[in-house]
Amino acid sequence: MIKVDIEEERKEILKRYRKLLRLAKPLLKSGDAKLIKKAFNVASEAHKEMRRKSGEPYIYHPLEVALICVEEIGLGTTSIVAALLHDVVEDTDMELEDIEREFGVKVAQIIDGLTKIAGVFDYGSSQQAENFRKMLLTLSDDVRVILIKLADRLNNMRTLDSMPRHKQLKIGSETKYLYAPLAHRLGLYSIKSELEDLHLKFMDNEAYEYISKRISDTRVSRNKFIKTFITPIENELQAQGFKFVIKGRPKSVYSIYNKMKTQNIPFEEVFDLFAIRVIIDTSYENEKAACWQVYSIVTDFYRPNPNRLRDWISTPRANGYESLHTTAMSQTGQWVEVQIRTQRMDDIAERGYAAHWKYKEKENAPEKAAGSLDEWITQVRTLLENNDGSAIEFMDDFRGNLFHDEVFVFTPKGDLKVLPFGATALDFAFEIHTEVGGKCIGAKVNQKLVSIGHKLKNGDQVEILTSNKQRPNEDWLKSVVTSRAKAKIKDALKDEKKGFMLDGKEIVQRKLKQMKLDFSSEIVEQLRAFFETKTTSEFYYKVGKGIIDATSIKSFKDFKQQKKAKKGPQVSCTDEKSFTKEIKNLKGPDHDQLLIGEDMDVVDYVLAKCCNPIPGDVVFGFVTVNEGIKIHRTACPNALELMSNHGNRVIKARWTSQQQIAFLAGLKIIGTDRVGLISDLTKVISNELKVNMRSITVDSDRGIFEGSIKLYVDSTNHLEKLIDNLSKVPGVLKVSRFD
């Protein structure tokens, strides 16, 4: 038992509460402090018997969430009150009616949006996705729901150490999958970066610690380098009478990790590891000219990379971000990213949506940036109104709307349209008008005729061609990326699709009756998985349209009977709770996780083919609908989606020490070609480490050698030793693992 000092805890609670009031003071109107005090007292009373997994008093959490709302997002009294009370309805006897009576309709609406849906969910549905959809329904009325949810998630991620491993995986993945892109979309860059860094900390701690240490080790030399770099710029800015500050900062841990991974390069080779930000204090009318003047000063001293100029002042990003970016070459041969912006732009970049309203309320406020965010919220409303599919379908559509990069294209009259990267002529047509989209037969891009699926590039001028005979069809969904276009196409296909779905449902019911199987949500979910369709609606539709032959449903029964005929006692579970219960029954109270290599006799599990885990990899178990438990690497390309949509099916799994099995792994080798290189590589593989190869493919082009080898190893240590030895072969430049 942990000894608790109640008096010390009481002092700490008051200290945090006073800090909240102190930071909120500039935002408060008369009577607000009383309201915050009342909310704090209600929350303290409601949570007084509760503790977090770390052992701390639960009230620390709502206090910290309220602090993030004030300090890091810049929200006011309504949000502070809602943040303090956000868990009261979910965790205590207090009802929404009580909140509304004491604190008003607005606070009650926000808390309703933040309260998870209680009750039983259909087999195979996703509780996480349903809760997310519910929260977003409130977004269309009040964006503060999302902002408080982001503050809540940030605090949960900061305190994730105390949670069990499978919960860390579920919460971490959900954060990377949904909440970090959402923070980005709302312009909350520092929160987005911290969420990504914390996700990495729990998913791949080794990589996180390595990069953090490298950033820390290079801090002194980095600061010295930045000081030297900015001195001439500072002197010139002062000489020209600018009011400014210059900040130097390293890239976030996750962005460095991402570059190392996607470009397959070491830490030292990460492009523009250094970044500086020049923030100038100037009037709104003078902003654009002043930023370009600063750009001119920077490029007087340092040569810019012409391919790395980003002008988000003339055309702000869709989330309202405004800044001028260039990458300049320092005297020591290192690239430095230089961001130039005004105080207003910096506020909006740091505080996102909340800052827009601060500036919108002022005179001469810029409409262009805040307007694009308002447009996005309107798009989300459209998406919500047109979505009558499953919550998972909704999540997919919504994530497609959290794009990171944009393309700027023009109408024939020269009007600018901002679309997500990868948008097509058909997306553009729906952006103009639903009717134009529905009748689109092609387009002229820069006067050249193109198909509806043609991908647009920055600066394209697009003219849409239409025909009254044209009608949307299902294939159109493959040619669009914007949620607006998807929603409108689905809308046009809805009645036809509904008919096929009803026919399909009737056929499935009839076939199951003939096969003497129950028509239940569990069986239908198993059928959906067996026929590899994403949702039950899609399964019914494919049966109704004849894409899935009705007679092939019989093969599902044969498959089920084969599974049943398997020997030995098998754990049959549908989620993490039922798995833990069954494994404890079979193996005793101390067992709550799957031991890979040891539990084959009691648990039906397989290693996932999408990521080929080997001993030493950090893994998790996932309860599938038809194929027992699958073991995935946490770095698996599918892990994020599985854990974000079906976190309740994630179970703890680890390798047993007694492994004597060979596992398939893939290696990619790049080098300079020479006579005898392949012979030297195969010698290392077969002679030195007694490794069996399954396949080797080699491609040589103009002196560059690229090979991929599939081989059997018994652990990550074995694989690392092999990579190390292969890297020493003369001519080999890089050896890396692939899934």
UniProtKB/TrEMBL annotation:
GO terms for biological process: guanosine tetraphosphate metabolic process. InterPro entries: ACT-like_dom_sf, ACT_dom, Beta-grasp_dom_sf, HD/PDEase_dom, NT_sf, RelA/Spo_fam, RelA/SpoT_AH_RIS, RelA_SpoT. Residues 405-466 form the TGS domain. GO terms for cellular component: plasma membrane. In eubacteria ppGpp (guanosine 3'-diphosphate 5'-diphosphate) is a mediator of the stringent response that coordinates a variety of cellular activities in response to changes in nutritional abundance. Belongs to the relA/spoT family. This is RelA/SpoT family protein. It comes from Cyclobacterium qasimii.
